[in-house]
Amino acid sequence: MNYMQLEAIAMPVLISGLVLFMGYIVWDLAKKSNAGGFGTSILFFALGLGVFGFVIKTIVVAIIE
Q1: Per-residue pLDDT for 64 more than 90?
Q2: For residue 21, what pLDDT is reported?
Q3: Are 17 and 27 in contact (CB under 8 A)?
Q4: Domain residue spans in the chain?
Q5: Measured between alpha carbons, how far is 42 from 48 in angstroms, rounded to an integer?
Q6: CA quadruple 17, 12, 4, 59: dihedral sign
Q7: How far apart are CA 63 and CA 55, in angstroms?
Q8: 61 falls in which pLDDT band (50, 70, 90)?
Q9: How far, in Å, are 4, 18, 21, 37, 50 from residue 43 at the CA level?
Q10: Average pLDDT over residues 37-47
């Protein structure tokens, strides 16, 4: 396995792990601050926009190449 293959496998796995960890952090923050249902949904919506932007960027770069 060369460097390019390792990077192609490791990057999506590690980024997915980071997104899941950030989701846990947001859930824990909402739970500890008693944000309620609406506040929790707003927090996850903001996190979702960041993840959505990353996915869109990846798709656009793949289309351009």
Answers
A1: yes
A2: 93
A3: no
A4: 3-64
A5: 10
A6: negative
A7: 12
A8: very high
A9: 36, 17, 14, 10, 11
A10: 90
In 3-state terms, what secondary structure has residue 64? helix
- The contacts found for 50-56 with CB under 8 angstroms, 24 or more apart, are 51/19, 54/15
Handedness of CA 8, 12, 17, 18 (dihedral sign): positive
Q: How many CA atoms lie within 13 A of 59 on its CB side?
A: 6
Structure tokens at 9: 């496998």
Residue 31 amino acid letter: K
DSSP 8-state assignment for residue 2: -
Nearest CA to 23 among 56, 50, 58, 55?
Answer: 50
- pTM for the whole thing? 0.70
User: How far from the centroid of its chain's Cα atoms is residue 34's Cα?
Assistant: 23
- The full length of the chain comes to 65
